[in-house]
From TrEMBL:
It comes from the Bacteria. Keywords: CBS domain. This is CBS domain-containing protein. Pfam families: CBS (PF00571). PANTHER family: CBS DOMAIN-CONTAINING PROTEIN, CBS DOMAIN-CONTAINING PROTEIN CBSX3, MITOCHONDRIAL. SUPFAM superfamilies: CBS-domain pair. InterPro entries: CBS_dom (IPR000644), CBS_dom_sf (IPR046342), Diverse_CBS-Domain (IPR051257). Signal peptide: none annotated. The lineage of its organism: Bacteria, Bacillati, Bacillota, Bacilli, Bacillales. Residues 9-65, 73-132 form the CBS domain. Gene3D superfamilies: CBS-domain.
Amino acid sequence: MARKVSELMSTDCVTATLLDNVYELAVLMRDHDIGFVPIVDGKKLIGVVTDRDLVVRGYAAKHSGSTAVAEVITTDMKTIDADTTVDEAAKLMADNQIRRLPVVKNGELAGIVSIGDLAVREIFVNEAGDALSSISQQGSGESHAAFH
């Protein structure tokens, strides 16, 4: 039987809300040694912010630390269900060059699965290796959409 994402996802997620600002997200990332923060309304996942989002849409766009999360959030992120198989998750991550993938149940954040979860736990090593290889490949000079 194929292993499910629910068996290896992180469930102790650090989250923020639209009431937070860019500075507060940067502090969360520093203090928790993370580069990805799901943005929630209650338990409902409404978007994500990565360290790259903070740089590109925040500071590089000359926004101050008091800038609202809404200015840097990604709302068109890919998500998966907790019942998704690990190999399906690895394929989705590879196909879309995603390093971290929110896991949702009925629209609510249930956890996060990362490429490291796939590789470190030696689950479907070939798929995880393929996914990591695909995600880490350099672009061919084209612009890639920013999925997280």
